[in-house]
Amino acid sequence: MKTDFLVIGSGIAGLSFALKVAEKQPESSITIITKSSETEGSTKYAQGGIAVVSDFDNDSFENHVEDTILAGDGLCNPEIVNFVVEQAPIRIKELINYGANFDQDNKQKFNLAMEGGHSQKRIIHKQDCTGLEIVESLLKRIKTYKNIQIINHLFALDLIVKNGSCFGVCTQDVNTCEIKNIFAKKTLLATGGVGQIFQFTTNPIVSTADGIAMAKRAGANISDMEFIQFHPTALYNPHQSPSFLISEAVRGEGAVLRTVNGIRFMKNYHKDEEMATRDIVARAIETEIKKTIVNYVFLDCSTISNKEFEKHFPNIKKRCENLGLDLSADSAPVMPAAHFLCGGINTDINGKTNIYNLYACGECANTGFNGANRLASNSLLESLVFAHQCAIDTLEDIEMDIEVCNNVFDENKKHFYPQEKIKEKSVEIRKMMSKNVGVFTNNKLLNQASLFMKKMGKDILEIQQDFKVSIALYQLINMVMVSNVIIKQSLERKENKGVFFNTDLK
């Protein structure tokens, strides 16, 4: 199969890119592939919203830039931060034109929310279902374009790269296991994050680090992988995966954190208390948890009236009620959970990687915007801005020949490696990463994890030689590969920054 533009992933980054290209190149062919359904991915589950300066009477680009750089602990690229923040109102206007609706007050202005690390209210949202609103709006718009094809349940195995140029991807059909190549003039990786390599994560089950692993195998530059952001307030439920997120906006409306003994503790850690940045709040919660025999603290929402909670957070309220929690009377048990990758595949301001004709956007990309710790609600914004940049850049030199390459996978092997054994190994990986490479780590824990992953990698290499290619096996390969990168770059970091905290470092 051949296509002009290939998009791997169907979140806000991939869908926005496809729309932009379709608008500007109606004669081109655009193919979106996704290993699950077209609506599945991290975007769908985003609750909080999008950070954008819209109230210029009380806010400014300068404020948003300063907040972003402060949250990123000095490792953001200031040029990129300024660019993204200033582009934000334009990209939001486009998103609204695509059909997305955001909450407004009685004066038809955005009903802005406050989140941790922000100096002003600047979060636009659709109650607590912002991501779902965006995905549904973009997909509805995409369905009006005949030159955009979405192929669900198609897993990307490996990029097709020759002489430093990308010519598409080798895939496997989820249902039939058929292996086939998709050749493209331009390829965009929009595959999301890595959360599923951890035992507790807010990321959906599809977030198994596939895009980053593919890019690494192809020779792409990967950096800042040690910066894994843990969201402070995932609902504690050890039997549920992924963990249900209780939005930061809940604390923005007045909810407070308490120990299991009912004592507020954030004032002991930062002057902004519950509204400190995620790295600070997550470490504070983890510290308080270690003082007790339970694995959670409480989020007390009784400070928010039942009417206001229902108005702003209907989905959170309903989910908690289904679990027997009345947030107007009960406190929710919460814990930190792996949430967002601040690093990833290195790109320039146009989303280009070091591999010709390969672009990356969204959580799998490292644009320089987030630094060592992403500011709340900046991720959807980053995806919007860089999807636009990628689209504009890819259109500049589309007139090129697609080089067709042979399938590199040996399909003559007779058997698949048993699914139950793959699941067992996945559980081992997740437990090791959560225990040794979590909110806090140290050199001993990192070295233990390194030895474990090297042995796991050796075992999987032997499995690959003896068994047929399968999606489950490749997800396992990707998890091990990216875990190794995270551990390696964690060991290489010699100072604590943002979300990275090694207790052996001063």
CATH architecture grouping of the largest domain:
3-Layer(bba) Sandwich
In the CATH scheme, the class of the largest domain would be Alpha Beta
| CATH-assigned fold name of the largest domain | FAD/NAD(P)-binding domain
Count of helix runs: 14
Portion in beta strands: 15-25%
- Which structural class is indicated by helix and strand composition? alpha/beta
Oligomer: single chain
Shape descriptor reads globular
Q: What would you give as the CATH superfamily of the largest domain?
A: FAD/NAD(P)-binding domain
User: What is the average of the pLDDT values?
Assistant: 94
Give the tally of structural domains.
Answer: 3
Order of helices and strands: EHEHEHHEHEEEEHEEHEHEHHEEEEHHHH
Please count the beta strands (DSSP E, at least 2 residues each): 16
Percent helix, as a range, is 25-40%
Uncertain segments:
none
Please summarize the sheet with the most strands: 7 strands, mixed
Distance linking N and C termini: 54 Å
The whole-angstrom Rg is 22 Å
